Write a sequence for this structure.
């Protein structure tokens, strides 16, 4: 295994994004964030991106967006301020500076959050639950609809993998399964339950088969017997 | 280390432990400390006596598997009162089952069991008791199984104007980075019934 | 009833409660008792002071708009040595995103992405899964994007009494004029107002 590029990657990922990288460059070069030397910082930024590319680090597209922004600002800085004297020309760097300041604030805020007493890191609640419970059938329930949606989504996610392929291939109805069983049992006279299932069966096949068998039992069209606990279940045509 | 500090450590260990805490685990954790003449069982007794004598509502008890804090039995009535006063949260299985009923009603128990992959009898009973779901009829299937749906109370608890106000899956699309997957799968809740309830 | 007994009842109620217990529920449970001059908040303070001064490893804290017993932070190392407890950790991007949501809620994903300068889909999902943030509605904007806010669990995890107990965002000097500009420039991507700390 070649692990070297991986190591670099880990180091470079300390930058959470282009703004983080820019802040780092400003800090490292002791620049004034309110008066960013755009040419200089653009050069530094692009050098960094180049380095990451050399190291085969996959760059988030946002890094390139900010690179383009920097180049654009650099270009606008070159337009002489006297072009339209009556209009107040806005500093092209302003929006970027504001974004950087804003981002800096939240980086600080994240640090402050991190200094709070965090549950399960600095402080722990009671681990065990009391078992004194009143039988409670009241409607005194705290809930919101999004919790419901999230619960439903997690069901869908869980349901994914297993079945969908099978589902579309063999969506056999209970009625169909009843017909199958009757056909086979009328020929064989007796049959073991398990053999009613297709070779590769899903939970749905089991459910449908059981439903079909139960229905046939209810209609007294078959008889069912189990000779020993956990033994095979035999289905018969009633005499 | 002073005895008080040692006792406080034991106290927090038992408090934070999810199960009654065995003496041997306490000994393992504290093996880095030189206890001198003291022993863990001895310290436990001191801690226990402190809680017992005090005006505290809590006691330290030794149960079969270890040590744990419990409320003193004479306060049980108050705790029962609390359980009726305070709104409770639905358990995860209850929420899950309720979600299936809400989004796929009318639905049979077999279908719910199938989707959840476990028996849902107990949970369905709880939801019926809490009047969040109700029996809305029988399905035209062999055995004429009961089908369930949500109630008026359900709408009230979840602050929904009507059932159409349920948030839909598109709403959480942006929650996940794998957005396309969701879109593809959202109609595909596999149900055992031959006639999947494809309302919407 | 003597004050000690009243305090013991409150102690057991909080102890028996899985989540931080709101004062109103304590008041409801104890409404059958004539407290005379005493008040529940007053009794809570007495109880809290008792645990704080004592040699106990446990303290009574006000978090997430309720009261809960927790271990004192100086004992954390010992508890972590017990491998039955799950330590919690958030990555730097998660912490950063959480800070943005906490101070700027309600906030959309596009706004979070803009502040961070990177796609935050995955991190938002993580925070939702950890129940530190939740969807609190939709914004009246084209596409009706979801807006996020922090949860009760967020307050619990960060030991905050309520959302106003968040540490102040540190102001950077000379920012005000720059911020006004920022607001003016935001026609395409509307961000919430830039003074987040004084809501609520």
């Amino acid at each position: 295994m070649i692990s070297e590029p991986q190591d670099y990657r880990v180091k470079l990922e300390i930058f959470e994004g282009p703004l983080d990288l820019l802040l780092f460059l400003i800090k490292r070069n002791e620049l004034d964030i309110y008066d960013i030397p755009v040419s200089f910082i653009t050069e530094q930024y692009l050098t960094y991106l180049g380095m990451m590319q050399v190291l085969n680090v996959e760059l988030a597209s946002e890094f390139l967006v900010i690179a383009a922004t920097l180049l654009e600002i650099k270009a606008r800085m070159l337009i002489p301020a006297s072009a339209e004297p009556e209009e107040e020309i806005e500093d092209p760097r302003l929006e970027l500076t504001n974004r950087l300041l804003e981002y800096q604030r939240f980086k600080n805020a994240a640090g402050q959050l991190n200094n709070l007493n965090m549950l399960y890191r600095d402080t722990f609640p009671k681990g065990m639950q009391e078992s004194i419970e009143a039988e409670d059938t009241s409607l005194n329930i705290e809930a919101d609809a999004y919790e419901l949606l999230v619960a439903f989504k997690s069901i869908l996610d869980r349901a994914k993998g297993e079945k969908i392929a099978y589902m579309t291939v063999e969506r056999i109805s209970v009625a169909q399964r009843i017909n199958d069983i009757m056909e086979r049992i009328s020929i064989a006279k007796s049959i073991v339950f398990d053999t009613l299932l297709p070779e590769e069966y899903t939970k749905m096949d089991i459910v449908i088969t059981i439903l079909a068998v139960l229905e046939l039992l209810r209609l007294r069209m078959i008889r069912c017997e189990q000779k020993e606990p956990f033994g095979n279940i035999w289905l018969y045509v009633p005499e | 280390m002073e005895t008080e500090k040692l006792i406080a450590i034991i106290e927090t260990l038992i408090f934070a432990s999810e199960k009654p805490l065995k003496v041997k685990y306490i000994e393992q954790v504290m093996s880095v400390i030189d206890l001198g003449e003291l022993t863990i069982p001895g310290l436990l007794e001191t801690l226990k006596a402190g809680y017992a004598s005090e005006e505290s509502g809590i006691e330290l008890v030794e149960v079969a598997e270890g040590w744990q804090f419990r409320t003193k039995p004479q306060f049980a009535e108050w705790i029962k009162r609390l359980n009726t006063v305070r709104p409770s949260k639905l358990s995860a299985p209850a929420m899950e089952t309720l979600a299936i009923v809400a989004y796929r009603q009318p639905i049979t128990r077999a279908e719910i069991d199938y989707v959840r992959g476990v028996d849902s009898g107990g949970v369905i009973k709880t939801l019926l008791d809490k009047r969040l779901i109700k029996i809305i009829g029988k399905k035209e299937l062999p055995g004429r199984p009961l089908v369930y749906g949500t109630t008026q109370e359900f709408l009230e608890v979840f602050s929904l104007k009507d059932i159409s106000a349920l948030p839909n899956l598109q709403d959480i699309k942006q929650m996940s980075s794998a957005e396309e997957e969701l879109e593809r799968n959202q109609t595909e809740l596999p149900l055992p019934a031959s006639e999947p309830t494809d309302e919407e």
Summary: The radius of gyration of chain B is 26 Å. The mean pLDDT of chain B is 82.
